[in-house]
Design the sequence.
């Protein structure tokens, strides 16, 4: 009888996602501060449109990345 051994699996660390100045809102074209992932698709929103769509999209989004706090901090 052979005994199965398990090798520890390496974890791949994802770099922190950060929206840049070239990322634009899909609704109005302003700078995007919110990124929603739905399946294989990505939607980018300014803070205004992100808040506007958040309730509906949060039910189906697999990821919701919000950097709108950068607006208050000046970063």
Sequence:
């Amino acid at each position: 009888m052979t005994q199965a051994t398990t090798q520890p699996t390496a974890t791949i660390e994802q770099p922190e996602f950060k929206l840049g100045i070239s990322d634009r809102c899909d609704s109005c074209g302003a700078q995007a501060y919110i990124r929603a992932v739905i399946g294989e698709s990505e939607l980018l929103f300014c803070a205004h449109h992100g808040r506007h769509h958040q309730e509906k999209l949060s039910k189906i989004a697999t990821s919701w990345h919000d950097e709108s706090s950068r607006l208050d901090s000046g970063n």
Observations:
- The mean pLDDT is 84.
